[in-house]
Write a structure and sequence with these properties.
seven-stranded mixed β-sheet, single chain, Glycerol-3-phosphate (1)-acyltransferase, 7 strands, alpha/beta
């Protein structure tokens, strides 16, 4: 049963979050011609910082990050993370900058939010056309990495219920292997505090774990993907709220 306090605070968050986003997206569009990509990335993410501030002070959501020292300095990487919430699409932008996120192209059509998102040079794909989508990820992803921009991929494709993990695609491992870059695995349990497709923002602590970068040299993309998925599933099983289903593939080769 969700308390009236949580409901009220969630509604207030929704209103403030959207109002700030609408105003800020217009400011982003106005300033974009005068900023380079790194400056633009920093400016657009003022909304992200405001969102995290609201979550913490209005909704009582704390964040615990483990493994910060695993993020390489001055080295673009391919990031693969589980997908539970809209929260990770915000928070990872604060952890790893600059970055380009692989996302469905329809998100760029959303008024205000999509306008600001488009300024971050995402890799927008048509998920219905899987062959061309993968080609776009590999081609544009390598170009971003060559420009010194990390690429973030959610290999499950769609958001999963809290405490569970879906099937993993190998697109992140394929990109890392093609570009000769390391792959950085990340896992979290944000869905408990910021559920997908819900207005509710529940108080609690989101735990995010960053793993050691996975080398791709001398390995096949299949081996890299298996190593990343195994690590994510093992770590997910130890997070608060994990369900037995996250252990299903621990024994995968």
């Amino acid at each position: 049963m969700v308390s009236w306090s949580v409901r009220l605070r969630s509604v207030l968050f929704f209103i403030a979050y959207n109002l700030i986003g609408m105003v800020h997206s217009l400011l982003c569009l106005a300033t974009a011609p005068f900023l380079d990509h790194r400056q633009r990335f920093h400016f657009v993410n003022h909304w992200t910082r405001a969102t995290m501030w609201l979550l913490r002070h209005l909704n009582g959501v704390q964040v615990e990050v483990r493994g910060l020292d695993n993020i390489p300095d001055n080295e673009p990487v391919v990031v693969v993370a589980n997908h539970q919430s809209q929260w990770e699409t915000f928070y990872l932008q604060l952890l790893i900058a600059p970055q380009s996120t692989v996302l469905k192209r329809e998100l760029l059509w959303v008024p205000f939010f999509g306008w600001g998102l488009a300024l971050l040079r995402p890799i927008a794909i048509n998920r219905r056309d899987r062959n061309n989508a993968l080609k776009a990820v590999l081609r544009q992803g390598k170009a971003r990495l060559d420009d010194g921009i990390s690429v973030v991929i959610y290999p499950e494709g769609t958001r999963q219920p809290p405490g569970t993990l879906g099937q993993f695609s190998a697109s992140g491992a394929l990109l890392a292997s093609l570009a000769g870059r390391r792959l950085l695995p990340i896992v979290h349990n944000a869905g408990h505090c910021w559920p997908a497709r819900s207005m509710m923002r529940h108080p609690g602590t989101i735990t995010l774990v960053i793993g050691p970068p996975i080398e791709t040299e001398g390995k096949s993309a299949k081996q890299v993907n298996a190593e990343a998925e195994r690590w994510i599933r093992q770590q997910a099983a130890a997070l608060p709220g994990a369900k037995p289903s996250v252990n299903e593939k621990l024994a995968m080769p």
